[in-house]
Amino acid sequence: MTFPSATAGRPVYLKLRDQIAAAILDGTFAEGAMLPSVRAYAAAEAANPLTVAKAYQQFQAEGLVQVQRGVGMFVVAGAADALRSREREAFLRSEWPEIVLRLRRLHIDPANLLADLESA
Q: Of 61, 64, 70, 103, which residue has the fewest beta carbons closer than 10 angstroms?
């Protein structure tokens, strides 16, 4: 039996949103930095520009990016912290319970996982 990945069945714009969110959290798109244009990002990801625009609109609606007309879209100050807080809440609410259930089913001791992580 195989288990579906966390992104299986998700709309493309949400997958792109997750990639952009990860880039903001990792500092690839730092606060104050300009995001790639919709067309440039679409070309880089082999995606439809309208799909990229939809992903970008989510960040704008969440107040994580600011549009400067005629210039581009910029990551606002505090975006990484706000995004990290939202992502953490979403993880603990929706993903973590499934992970805990799977650990129990497989008889995996979380303490051993942490020890392995610390020794790596």
A: 70
- Beta-carbon contacts of 32 under 8 Å, excluding residues fewer than 6 positions away, are 74, 75, 77
Q: Which domains does the chain have, with CATH numbers?
A: 12-119 (1.10.10.10)
- For the stretch 76-109, pLDDT in tens is 999 999 999 999 999 999 999 999 999 999 999 9
Per-residue pLDDT reduced to its tens digit, 35-51: 999 999 999 999 999 99
First to last CA, the chain: 29
Long-range contacts of 103-109 (CB under 8 A, 24+ apart): none
Identify the helix (H) or strand (E) that includes residue 75. Answer: strand 72-75
Amino acid at 5: S
For residue 79, the tally of other CB atoms under 10 A from its CB is 24
